[in-house]
Amino acid sequence: MGLLHDLLFDYTLRTVALGSATLGAVSGTLGVFAVLRREALLGDAISHAALPGIVLAFMFTGSKSSLVLVGGAFVAGWIGMALMRTVTRNTRIPPDAALGIVLSVFFGFGLMLLTFVQRRPDAAQAGLETFLFGQAATLVQGDVLVIGVLGFASLATMSILWKEFKVLSFDTDFGASVGIPMRRVELILTTVLVLAIVTGLQTVGVVLMAAMVVAPAAAARQWTDRLGSMVWLAALFGGLAGVTGAVLSSTTTGLPTGPTIVLSASVIVGVSLAFAPRRGLVWERIRARHRRSAIRRDTVLADLYALYCQHDDIDRGHPLPVIEAMSEAKEGAFNTLLALESDGLARLLPDGVWALTPDGRVSAEQRLAGYQPGNTP
Amino acid sequence: MSMVEIEIQLLAITVAVACAVPGVFLVLRRLALMSDAISHTVLLGIVIGFFVVQDLTSPLLILGAAVAGVLTVALVESVRRTGLVNEDTAIGLVFPALFSIAVILISRYAGDVHLDTDAVLLGEIALAPFRRLEVFGVDVGPRGLWTMLAILVLNVTFLVVFYKELKLSTFDASLAAALGFSPVVLHYAFMGVVSITAVGAFDSVGSVLVVAFMIVPPAAAYLLSDKLGRVIGLSAGIGAVSAVSGYWIARWLDASIAGAMAGASGLIFLIVFLVAPERGLIALSGRRARQRIEFARTMLAIHLLHHEGTPDAEEECRLDHLSEHLRWSAEQADRIVHSAEKAGFVTLLGERLHLTTEGREEAQAAMLR
User: What integer pLDDT is reported at residue A269 of this predicted model?
Assistant: First the structure.
């Protein structure tokens, strides 16, 4: 329970965990809308586009307070998004290419500015690089306050405009037809998304922030079909990934924060893709196997019935190779026969040959009576 | 210009052209962000390759990186094929995870080796001329330049050999499949080419510039032409211009070369976006304004035709009545009437508008449309 104790009473660890959890929850929540609108990689572009804003804010103010840097990041990220929308709205350039343009050009420009700053003699720039890969360990209480306030502002906007955001995600044309100014709603959603992303940059880093937008939402999507529960789940997953990653990285040397948080989120996604009820891949496999064995059972039963019809003798047995030759599922024939036997539909006669039981005959007749070509019985 | 400067620029031009060729198809096939994903995940291949051979100069690292690139494509494809997430979500899930693993591996196990993340993002094109290639003891030039030239030749060969197939599967995938070309095989072969290009370029210019060179020049070229061949040529040209101008901007400002090249390509894109004939923003808004006034002109003709010969014609067809009836401002009405007069649709006698024969025909035709 040492870790729990530290989480509650150790100042640094508590600050780090609180900050990372908040930003994970906020970016996860708003990421839901990005993922549902098929703009999952918007976060990637916004976070990269924010870099020149961070560097310029530092160059002009000389301050490294989170509020100043996040402000610069916000302006740059927002301009990047506005440019991207202008390009896609007015040309035939596909949205993903427009994102790629904003991402690479802004980020390249930001890195160029960073080389200026790095040459400054006062060495005050030290620490700006943490924005590339994130550094949760440097969070102080003031940063957490900034994260909390900005996060609250984004989430409050979301709950006020819940209905509008929902319509925007699922049926924009309908929204426009009932008189909601959809372009303005889209602008507000983008703005709060930019806000959520830039607050996360200090912890997760520019390069990997995309994952904090995509992963919690993609994981949450697997567990539910309702927007409300998806948002709560995404917040939970994002917060969980944030805490796990930040705490692991702060307590272990040589474990950078951003990548650790991202890997925690990836694990959550992996588990969700595999095990979420109904949609999970594992359940899907199991269901497919059940379907296959049910089909095999029916075919083997039908084969036995066909043999019975040819000989008109229910006590006459048929050797396994004959049944295997008839059945499409060769390897499975023996196991299927065993399953039929345990259900009392087939029996193994003393000399190792198989026959229907009277029950099996009835069952086969019932199934065949309901059989229409093209329908499964 | 010194030899080193010339070599840097030659290398940058080669990278730009080599990236532009597959980049055009990435943009057209809506796979632009796969270049972002691949240029990040090649780092994992390099790191794992390094752990295996313990040598940062081994060509095996390039191989490892290329494998990682193709692996990324396969992973994204298999995540997408589960049907549980969209394509772009799949990209957004796969590459940050792989990149994170690479960064963690570096900082935990290779902290003392020269494999820092700054170099990964930015590359070290300024140092490229100092890594020489020697053949039989004779210095033939920078190693990076020869690597990229080889990749360029590969890309151009691939393009020439599979031009028809690439074109068809890009613009009409179903037809390509129906005609018996295998889009899947072609897709993987193409993504293999993209990976190799990304790896080679990554080695000299870093991941940011790979993405910039693969997406920005093709997107700009796409606004300038409708012919695939010309788009490819134009994007190679735009890439080369970005490379050279970026280099001189960086020299002038004494800043990161790769960053400046990405910035220069963005600047060129912006200019093209504004002034491209037909598809540029300026041409576009000019065309929209023209269409607006043409539409209004036709509206005016229809309005006049509607009231022609009716008792209220005297009232309805007055110039100052238009603002009331069609909700045009006086200034707007003046402009439209002037344009309609010039088109020969109406004549203005005093304050009263009269439809000409042409105007009548225009109005009737418009109503039938």
Answer: 94
Q: A211 touching B, CB under 8 A?
A: yes
The values of phi and psi at residue B347, to 5°, are: -125, 145
Q: At what angle do helices A2-9 and A11-36 cross, to 10 degrees?
A: 90
Within 8 A of B211 by CB-CB distance, chain A residues are 100, 103-104
- In total, the C-beta contacts within 8 angstroms joining chain A to chain B are 196
Q: CA-to-CA distance for A111 and B315, rounded, in angstroms?
A: 68
Answer whether A214 sits within 8 Å of B32, measured CB to CB.
no
Nearest CA in chain B to A263: B97
Highest mean pLDDT among B143-157, B230-244, B337-351: B230-244
Amino acid identity of residue B5, one-letter, is E
Contact A133 B117 (CB under 8 A): yes
Structure tokens at B255: 């800043």
CA distance A141 to A11: 9
ipTM value of the model? Answer: 0.86
Residues of A in contact with B91 (CB under 8 A): 40-41
Q: What is the pLDDT of residues A26-81, one digit of tens each?
A: 999 999 999 998 888 888 899 999 999 999 998 888 887 778 888 999 999 999 99
Residue B307 identity (one-letter amino acid): H
Alpha-carbon distance of A268 to B362, in angstroms, equals 65
CA angle at residue A40 from A36 to A41, to 5 degrees? 165
The single-letter DSSP state of residue A129 is T
> Is B346 within 8 Å of B300 (Cβ atoms)?
yes
Asked if A113 and B273 come within 8 Å (Cβ–Cβ), the reply is no
C-alpha span between A183 and A196 (Å, rounded): 20
Q: Write out chain B residues lying below 8 Å of A279, CB-based.
A: 84
From the list A26, A163, B71, the residue with the least C-alpha distance to A18 is A26
Name residues whose C-beta falls within 8 Å of residue B143's C-beta, 6 or more positions apart in sequence.
B128, B131, B132, B133
CB spacing of A218 vs B85 below 8 angstroms: yes
Whether residue B27 and residue A279 make contact (CB cut-off 8 A), yes or no, is no
CB contact under 8 A, B86 and A207: no
pTM for the full model?
0.84
CB within 8 Å: A108 and B103: no
DSSP string, B170-217: HH-HHHHHHTT--HHHHHHHHHHHHHHHHHHHHHHHHHHHHHHHHHHH
Q: What is the largest CA-CA distance in chain A?
A: 101
> From the CA of B216, how many Å to the nearest CA of chain A?
5
Q: What is the pLDDT of residues A272-319, one digit of tens each?
A: 999 988 888 888 889 988 888 888 888 888 888 888 888 888 888 888
Burial of B15 (0-12, 13-18, 19+ CB in 10 A): buried
The answer to whether A109 and A233 have CB atoms below 8 angstroms apart is: no
SS3 assignment for B217-274: HHHHHHCCCCCHHHHHHHHHHHHHHHHHHHHHHHHHHCCCHHHHHHHHHHHHHHHHHH
Q: CA-CA distance, B23 to B213, in Å (whole number)?
A: 8
Mutate to test the interface with A, among B29, B34, B36 (most CBs of A within 10 A): B36
